[in-house]
Amino acid sequence: MYTVLNKKELQRYPEFDNHFMVVKLFEPKVCLDGYISIHRQRQSYPALGATRLWSYSSEEDALRDSLRLARLMSYKSVLAGLPYTGAKAALIFSPNSQINRRDFFKAYASVVNELGGQFVTGTDVGVNNTDLAVMAAESKFMIGNGVDSGFYTAVGILDSILESLREVFNSEDLSARSFAIQGLGKTGGHLLKLLVKGGANNIFVTDINPRKTWYYKLRYPFIKLVNPVAIYTREADVFCPCALSHAVTAERIPFFKFKIIAGSANNQLESVQAGQDLFDKGILYAPDYVINAGGLVSVIDEMENGKSDHERTLSKIKKIRDSLSAIYFSSKQEGQSTNIVADNLAEEILERNCAVK
């Protein structure tokens, strides 16, 4: 049900980074189609990365997404102080297909088993806990069914916001600052709660689902609801992208009135140049894969110890803030954008850790 792709054929994709292994999945009986990319191999450690089910516009888009996100998972892991490398599964959902989710994910779990423990996975966009339970019944290489990873991701984001406030304003007082949260899903909603608990009271929120925004408006009447497009031009100290990718684009940056960008979404920057543009504009960018590692930390704690422990997980998440502080310091010392500094630091650690480069 899978084929290992030839590395020479993959070199034409800019996202290919001499990945250790890329496999093509295909089982027409259950409409299974997609890719698993393993970025690096480290002896005695599996590669970790969630499974995404998405309506990709093409096979190539799915492949490139898996390649890009596998590399970012490696970066996320090592900068959180974890010994694992990164991977990603991008499964293709066709709206016209008659998919039986149970059969689909059972077949997918069988492929994960065939990889022999090189790849350990959990849920991402399009995959829910029911799907994960189906997969876990078929494969021991599934993680995250007993932990609220969205909450722990939000904890890491809050710590990073506090570090960013200290960097920019020399104060961590949430009540003195304004926030714009884009996306109130399982992480954005938790982040809103944590900000309010910490004293924040000047908060703009938006989500493409109006039921979510009104749900939180009823809980916190003081928050201000914003149109999804208008969030990019709000005047706020901290912008928190917690929805889909590419919130930060060349077209939007000139209109930004933020001092800090720190959110949970993956691939927030449309390009490497976007990070440089933020740096030139004086906007402090907290690299997404650095600060959104709390969920990964939580599921690894569960995997390594049999079940997750709240206090132990919180203690491990504190390393995220330490990494971010080092990145901010290096950015100032070297005069480089934070995304470049983070990439270079992650590559240095990977080169030391991995048997295969």
UniProtKB/TrEMBL annotation:
Keywords: NAD, Nucleotide-binding, Oxidoreductase. Residues 150-357 form the Glutamate/phenylalanine/leucine/valine/L-tryptophan dehydrogenase C-terminal domain. SUPFAM superfamilies: Aminoacid dehydrogenase-like, N-terminal domain, NAD(P)-binding Rossmann-fold domains. The active site is at residue 88. One of its GO terms (biological process) is amino acid metabolic process. Belongs to the Glu/Leu/Phe/Val dehydrogenases family. NAD(+) binds at residues 183-188. GO terms for molecular function: nucleotide binding; oxidoreductase activity, acting on the CH-NH2 group of donors, NAD or NADP as acceptor. It holds the Pfam family ELFV_dehydrog. InterPro entries: Aminoacid_DH-like_N_sf, Glu/Leu/Phe/Val/Trp_DH, Glu/Leu/Phe/Val/Trp_DH_C, Glu/Leu/Phe/Val/Trp_DH_dimer, Glu/Phe/Leu/Val/Trp_DH_bac/arc, NAD(P)-bd_dom_sf. This is Glutamate/phenylalanine/leucine/valine/L-tryptophan dehydrogenase C-terminal domain-containing protein.
